Amino acid sequence: MTDFTKTRARFRLPDGVIYLDGNSLGPLPAAAAERVGRTLEEEWGRQLIRGWNSAGWMTQPRSVGDRIARLVGAPAGSVVVGDTLSIKVYQALAAALAFNPGRKVILSDSGNFPTDLYMAEGLIATLGQGHRLKVVEPEAVEGAIGDDVAVLMLTEVDYRTGRLHDMAALTARAHAAGALTVWDLAHSAGALPVDLLGSGADFAAGCTYKYLNGGPGAPAFIYVAPRHADTALPALSGWMGHEAPFAFDRSYRAGQGVERMRVGTPPVIALAALEAALDVWDGVDMAAVRRASIALCDLFITLVEAECPELELASPRDGACRGSQVSFRHPQGYAVMQALIDRGVIGDFRAPDVLRFGFAPLYIGADEVRAAVAVLRQVLDGRLWDRPDYHRKAAVT
Amino acid sequence: MTDFTKTRARFRLPDGVIYLDGNSLGPLPAAAAERVGRTLEEEWGRQLIRGWNSAGWMTQPRSVGDRIARLVGAPAGSVVVGDTLSIKVYQALAAALAFNPGRKVILSDSGNFPTDLYMAEGLIATLGQGHRLKVVEPEAVEGAIGDDVAVLMLTEVDYRTGRLHDMAALTARAHAAGALTVWDLAHSAGALPVDLLGSGADFAAGCTYKYLNGGPGAPAFIYVAPRHADTALPALSGWMGHEAPFAFDRSYRAGQGVERMRVGTPPVIALAALEAALDVWDGVDMAAVRRASIALCDLFITLVEAECPELELASPRDGACRGSQVSFRHPQGYAVMQALIDRGVIGDFRAPDVLRFGFAPLYIGADEVRAAVAVLRQVLDGRLWDRPDYHRKAAVT
Q1: CB distance A121–B251 less than 8 Å?
Q2: Of the candidates A63, A67, A297, B197, which lies 20 to 30 Å from B255 by C-alpha distance?
């Protein structure tokens, strides 16, 4: 049984802050600074170049990948870490398209995070083979999986609304229609149980700085189904994905299995922070996280709807159809969020009018949910959001 | 005048070590651990998601890029930091090819670092337009720049021998033949003066973990000549290169200038270490670094040739034709290097028989050069390299 009192003690959260934005950037694990400091001073500082072997830097993308694999229902040896989610989506999509050369449609939905769509556009232009990105509404995805679809590329949890796709059902539907799947797990990994192997997903990618708490700009990960791992095209064929990087061959030969999806030199310092973050996950039962997450989200919805009827729910009401976040609409959403943040309740805003609140049971409990709603009520009661400076649009929200 | 006694005090080098491998991984700057710790504890820990604005994380790829620009002869606003060198080479090459659609040859040389060649192979396969990678010997490059060449892609300094290409002359020759240029500055940035703007280079990329001392796996940088910056194709078109990332548009619109070459979320923790490393470069005169580097390399060559005639010079003898490293050949090169490392003289080995020694005046002086040669003499005299365990090949050298 996961004891969330214990996981909670493993994070450093500032006093007076209720942090409901772990869906954007997870908080600092208590052990991260020491772990990173050790990598700098003892590994880099003392071992210098020898750290690539003696400190295990060279194999870390795979060993850290195995730790993430456990959290997303993937077998050991099927996940590697590195680069950014955008890059990993590009590789996954390129590899998936190469398996389906006779078809030209990449099907996605309007709930996908924009960078996935942008990377697909870039890949389509680079391929120059007349591929087409077809973007439909989330509820229209299933019906749009026709026999022209090469690849179904979706983010499992919608970043704005938290709406959860049925990965197993859509993957089965795609396969039945002769398409492959690429799943973006940005808002899934660490948020809810994912069953990559069981669902039959072909490729997946995710980031580690949201629910996994790896730190700002922490490296991404990529999953390749074992049945594809030795034949998938890396597209971004860098030396770390070569069969023998230190043979310094003139020609590329793809490495074994998922190793081929490695590209350049591993981000050692960032990986140290991620290791500290993954330590918190040791022994955590994802089913228990899911139960607690749904309970927190349900409580938040119940309280907001009872106490703040000005807000309109923008997330699925059924916890089974939702990730680990709840979104509400308010016409002055941006300013309301600024007022909340100033009062220590940190969520975020997505245009045009969405207030997003993420609930991570590892460090958030029912007391924080109640306190956050009370502050929200105060902000609305006093029109505390009606200060001019709350209405200036910041560059980043 | 650059005072190398002062720069030297800004690194932490282990006692008893003479570090001649800064051409592979620079040493730990003394201020890095504190700087990274501050980013973790004060920025990530306290500011949480707000750090993207309040701590400047979002604009760091550009601001750090400007600091590197000064060191490679590039104007402010022409360099951004992120990803790995492999990824940045891919973007540069894709953009260069798109400017020259009628031609199919990518010309490179056997002194290029393999990952550049591998990324080119991957791009060629993805483009599927019949491009061809032509790899000639370094001395044959100039003569091979024919009117079929779309892009000349070279690493300025050969990673094995230190041989230095004439960037200005080869760029002029390429332009005269109607080709564009992509320069890899992995062994140039921080090693010698580079004049990207003056040489007319079209694109360049480099890494920051060698002579710039940014740490293991530190992010790379890319340069786009100002005349191309608003029309270059990003290829890896991620959200951070979008004109308005936080508008969350469904379609990609390339950002202003070099910003379009950004891809995913910036690696904030790694950038903190790199910032500390770049602080050491403040006020350093690259011409003074070059003079000191040539003097150190010349001294090393003179002493080794006088005292260790078993070794054969594998680098250009003329300092003006060499980067900041010296390579020697020995039939038992691998084992000799293991014996040296065990005695505190850290260089590295490249197959089949090359011993590499890098000389970074920021933290290495003539005393270390003399001491290193004395240890080399001891190793050779006593056949100290003749231990069986020195002859096992490590995974990484």
Answers
A1: yes
A2: B197
Question: Among A91, A100, A172, which Cα is nearest to A131's?
Answer: A100
Residue B262 CA to residue B114 CA, distance in Å, equals 24
Percent share of chain A, pLDDT over 70: 98
Kind plus residue range of the DSSP H or E element containing B350: strand B348-350
Nearest Cβ partner for A348 among B49, B113, B118:
B49
pLDDT score of A313 more than 90: yes
Our CA angle for B79, B186, B154, nearest 5°, is 95
* A-chain residue closest to B24, CA distance: A49
Say yes or no for a CB contact (<8 Å) between A28 and B14. no
Chain B residues closer than 8 Å to A14 by CB: 45-46, 48
Banded model confidence at residue B396, pLDDT cuts 50, 70, 90: very low
The active-site residue, picked from B4, B11, B90, B209, is: B209
Rounded CA-CA distance A167/A146 in Å is 17
Provide the residue type at B339 as one letter: A
Catalytic site includes residue B246: no
Residues of B whose CB is below 8 A from A216: 43-44, 51-52, 57, 265-266, 268-269
| Domain definitions of chain B by residue range | 4-29+285-391, 32-281
Model pLDDT, residue A1: 66
ipTM over 0.90? The verdict is yes
Of B27, B41, B264, the CB nearest to A86: B264
Kindly give, in sequence order, each residue whose CB lies less than 8 Å from that of residue B154, ignoring residues fewer than 6 positions away: B108, B109, B111, B112, B141, B165, B170, B181, B182, B183, B184
Interface contact B244, partner A, CB < 8 A: no
Is any Cβ of chain A less than 8 angstroms from the Cβ of B94? yes
**CATH fold for domain B4-29+285-391:** Aspartate Aminotransferase, domain 1 (3.90.1150)
pLDDT of A394 > 90? The answer is no
pLDDT in tens, B68-82: 999 999 999 999 999
Whether residue A153 has pLDDT greater than 80: yes
Reply yes or no on whether the pLDDT at B397 is more than 80: no
| Residue B31: closest CA among B367, B272, B323 | B272
**Tens-digit pLDDT profile for residues B21-70:** 999 999 999 999 999 999 999 999 999 999 999 999 999 999 999 999 99
Q: Is there a contact between B175 and B200 (Cβ–Cβ < 8 Å)?
A: yes
Name the amino acid, one letter, at B322. R
Q: Are B358 and B213 in contact (CB under 8 A)?
A: no
**Would you call B83 and A87 a contact, using CB atoms and an 8 Å cutoff?**
yes
Mutate to test the interface with B, among A46, A48, A83 (most CBs of B within 10 A): A48
Half-sphere exposure in the Cβ direction for B362 (13 Å, CA): 33
Is B263 close to A84, i.e. CB distance below 8 A? yes
Burial degree of A173 (CB within 10 A; 0-12, 13-18, 19+): middle
Q: Residues with Cβ < 8 Å from A282, sequence gap 6 or more?
A: none
Asked if B185 and B72 count as a contact pair (C-beta separation under 8 A), the reply is yes
Is A270 within 8 Å of B267 when comparing Cβ atoms? yes
Q: Is A356 a catalytic site residue? A: yes
| The one catalytic residue among A184, A348, A349, A363 | A184
Facing residue for A248 by CB, picked from B12, B84, B350:
B350
Domain B32-281: which CATH number of 3.40.1190.20, 3.30.479.30, 3.40.640.10, 3.40.50.150: 3.40.640.10
